[in-house]
Amino acid sequence: MPKQKGYSKTIRSQQKVLHVSKKGIDLVRDPMLNKGTAFSEKEREEFNLYGLVPPHVSTFEEQIKRVTENYRRKDTDIGKYIFLEALHDRNEILYYALLLRNLEGMTPIIYTPTVGLACQQYGHIFRRTRGMYMPASAKGNFRKIINNWPEDKVDVIVVTDGSRILGLGDLGTSGIGIPIGKLALYVACAGIYPSRTLPVVIDVGTNNEKLLKDHLYLGERHPRLTGEEYYDIIDECVVAAHERWPKALIQFEDFTNDHAFPLLNKYRKKLLCFNDDIQGTGGVALAGILAAMRITKGKLNEQKIIFLGAGSAAVGIADMIVAGMVEEGLSKQEARKRFWFIDSKGLVTYTRGDKLAEHKIAYARNDKFQKTLLEVVKTVKPTILMGVSKQPGAFNEKVIREMKKHVDIPIIFALSNPTSKSECTPIQAYEWTDGNVVYASGSPFDPIKYKGKTYTTGQGNNMYIFPGVGLGATVCKATKITDSMFYTAAKTLANLVSKEDLKKGRVYPDLKDIREISSHIAVSVCEVAYSEGIAWEKRPDNLLEFVKSKMFQPVYLPYKAV
After folding, report:
1. Is the pLDDT of residue 172 over 60?
2. Long-range contact list for 63-69, CB < 8 A, 24+ apart?
3. Most buried pick, 34, 174, 214, 417, via CB within 10 A?
4. Domains plus CATH for the chain?
5. How confident is the model at residue 35 (pLDDT cuts 50, 70, 90)?
6. In this predicted structure, what is the pLDDT of residue 16?
7. Helices (H), strands (E): how many in the chain?
8. What is the biggest distance separating any 2 CA atoms in the chain, rounded to whole angstroms?
9. What pTM did the predictor assign?
């Protein structure tokens, strides 16, 4: 991992006085300005804070110690999630400082897998509003509603309709937890300013009967809208947000396949946007495969890849790998012939008799139809298995041992989230291949021991890619997000995997270096934007230093009253 040369300079450059207009209890209740017990004596006098905070002036380290102790007292993951969100709501500087110091341990709490449980229980654990709710009943008024958001500057908006939350399905307006978690990662991993992020859920109803009957559910209680009515509501929301913040990046998150592709195709050339489930997942998976090639000594354009699952994530991954194969000399048509997709009906072929969804057609085959994964593995003799099916245990012992017969070191990516949906566990993959495997998962697993050696398997987490892409697009003021940005981000990430990582069985770098990773990915995205002529910001002499200088640092600044 490159040394973090720019950080001390970046932090020093942000040590300036912050002019603040709020005073008294209004200041204490503002999570972006509140320092809690760390307000200095001078600030307490100047901002009328005496009596509103305890008399002891705490150091930042004392505050970190206090919240760490309280976090560790929580004996359940959902309890830890609620504690962190409460801290998030009252003191954002302290929240992000704590998160950055404990990123590897706390990411599974603020995001997958715990965020899935939090979304399922959202109406029951709700404490304080965060983000915006755009209900279908307000159609025609979204331009007015969007103006209720207090911030005039927004850089990144993450929006969901709650229809496909992780591997948990339709959670309606409770899906707001996903945009909240994603934006926390934007801030922690890439230094997007917290006040310039906006989580949004577009509430078009839910088909989840359990939620509709839950008296504490916080969304509108009607079945999901469909057809033109659905698209009209999404369009009005997107247009309203774009009109108010025309330079903001809009990230589509956890939409069902039948909506994810049409929405991306509709807006990607009109405004700055991307779909993380399609493009982000694709970039992260490609990066892991490129790193895996350094272990297997194989060539990307020679791989035979079976996908279990044929949704937006699967197609996004395949499209990105195809781009890599094309760079290595294949045509797009030749590259696509190296993929076999299996959906709920079996192998995706033209010959099986059903009408294929549009996004599957490019990867459909003229092969003989086969029903099961094991049949396809026996026929194809793949080098890579990609799991995006949400079918726990689908990569069973028979499947993996059959694969191992035909390849020395199988590459197995069990990417379904959360952990409970993973197609196989790392210990299963190692035991069934006698330790000769490259394994990655979508959610984190603890390190495993096999035949006296400890393996820290990689997590193909989108947080390796999307924060850096967003940072780069924001810094250079890109006018659109292109596939080439995600492709170069994937190559950059793969190149940051060290030899030490590979020895541990890990095809992704250590998360403790995520800010350095994000800064390099941001630079690569900026370079693409400059080369394609879609950046408004003039290119600085030292792009890496410029990127780092734009990253938010969770440190208290001295305040001066306006």
Report:
1. yes
2. 63/36, 63/37, 63/38, 63/94, 64/94, 64/97, 64/98, 64/101, 67/94, 67/98, 68/98, 68/102
3. 174
4. 59-255 (3.40.50.10380), 279-460 (3.40.50.720)
5. very high
6. 83
7. 25, 16
8. 79
9. 0.91
- DSSP, collapsed to helix, strand or coil, labels residue 202 as strand
Residue type at position 433: T
Q: Is 267 a catalytic residue?
A: no
Q: Taking a C-beta distance cutoff of 8 angstroms, is the pair 200, 157 a contact?
A: yes
Catalytic residue among 71, 80, 95, 182: 182
Q: What is the pLDDT of residues 128-166, one digit of tens each?
A: 999 999 999 999 999 999 999 999 999 999 999 999 998
Count the neighbouring beta carbons within 10 Å of the beta carbon of residue 550.
17
SS3 246: coil
Q: Which of 112, 115, 134 is nearest to 125 (CA)?
A: 115
Per-residue pLDDT of 231-255, as tens digits, reads 999 999 999 999 999 999 999 999 9
Q: Is 524 helix (H, G, I), strand (E, B) or coil?
A: helix
In this structure, is the dihedral angle defined by the CA atoms of residues 359, 362, 363 and 369, taken in order, positive or negative? positive
Cα–Cα distances (Å) from 187 to 67, 150, 385, 468, in that order, read 19, 19, 33, 10
What whole-number distance in Å separates Cα of residue 397 and Cα of residue 381?
16
Q: How far apart, in whole angstroms, are the C-alpha atoms of residue 439 and residue 460?
A: 10
Q: What is the DSSP code (8-state) at residue 349?
A: B
What is the β-pairing status of strands 132-135 and 197-203?
parallel
Taking 50 as the threshold, does the pLDDT of residue 94 lie above it?
yes
Q: Compute the Cα dihedral for 171, 172, 173, 177 and give only its sign.
A: positive
Asked if residue 437 lies in contact with residue 412, where contact means CB atoms within 8 angstroms, the answer is yes
Average pLDDT over residues 169-175: 97
Query: Please, is 215 exposed, middle or buried when counting C-beta atoms within 10 Å of its C-beta (0-12, 13-18, 19+)?
Result: exposed
From the candidates 71, 96, 111, 439, give the one annotated as an active-site residue. 111
| Spatial CB neighbours of 252, under 8 Å, sequence gap ≥ 6 | 159, 160, 260, 263, 264, 273, 274, 275, 276, 277
Alpha-helical runs (H) found in 297-331? 312-327
Average pLDDT, the chain: 94
Query: In 338-376, which positions are buried (b, 16+ CB within 10 angstroms) versus exposed (e)?
Result: bbbbbbeebbbbeebeeebeebbebbbbebeebeebebb
Q: Which amino acid is at 105?
A: G
Q: Is 111 a catalytic residue?
A: yes
Q: Position of tokens 């509003």?
A: 129
Q: 9 pLDDT exceeds 60? A: no
Contact (CB, 8 A) for 485 and 529: yes
Rg, the chain, Cα only: 24
What spatial distance separates the first Cα and last Cα of the chain, rounded to whole Å?
43
| Pair type for strands 453-455 and 448-450 | antiparallel
Tens of pLDDT, residues 271-322: 999 999 999 999 999 999 999 999 999 999 999 999 999 998 999 999 999 9
Instruction: Give the Cα separation of 218 and 222 in Å (integer).
Output: 12
